Amino acid sequence: MSTNLSPAKRGWSVGLTAMAGFFLLMAGGFQLLQGLAALIHGDFFVVVQNNTYSLNVTGWGWIHLIIGIIGIITGFALLAGQTWARVVGIVLAVLSAIANFMFLPYYPVWSILIIVLDIAVIWALTVYERDSEF
Asked: Over the chain, what HEC string results?
C-alpha cells in the first residue's frame, strides 16, 4: 500500500469510487428496466416518424438490457474494489450515454436521467487517485 496520499485525499478517492459504483448500479438498473419495458411492452414507447436514429423498439430493448446487466455487474465489481471495473465502468458509461442520446426521441426524460448518471460515473472514475486502495 502506498502512503503518498493524505487521509483527506484518500477519503475522497474512496468516496468517489463508491459513489461511481452506486451510480453505475442505479444506471444499470434503470437501463435494465428500460430494456425490459421495450421487450415486454414495446408499444409503451412512442415511435416518432423520420427519426435519424430509427431502430426497432425491440432492438433498443436488447441494447438497454445488455448495457444494464453489464452495468450492474460492473457496479458491484467497483464496490468490491476490482481494478478492471474502473476501465469497464468508464467505457460502459460512455456507451450508455451514447445509446441514451440516440434513444432521446423515444423517452426523453428517462434518457436524460441515465445520461446524467453516466456523466457522474465518468467524472467519479476519472478523478480517482491511482495510489489509493479501495
From this structure: CCCCCCHHHHHHHHHHHHHHHHHHHHHHHHHHHHHHHHHHCHHHCCCCCCCCCCCCHHHHHHHHHHHHHHHHHHHHHHHCCCCHHHHHHHHHHHHHHHHHHHCCCCCHHHHHHHHHHHHHHHHHHHCCCCCCCC
Q: Structural domain boundaries of the chain? A: 11-40+53-126
pTM for this entry? 0.79
Greater confidence (99 vs 45) lies with 99
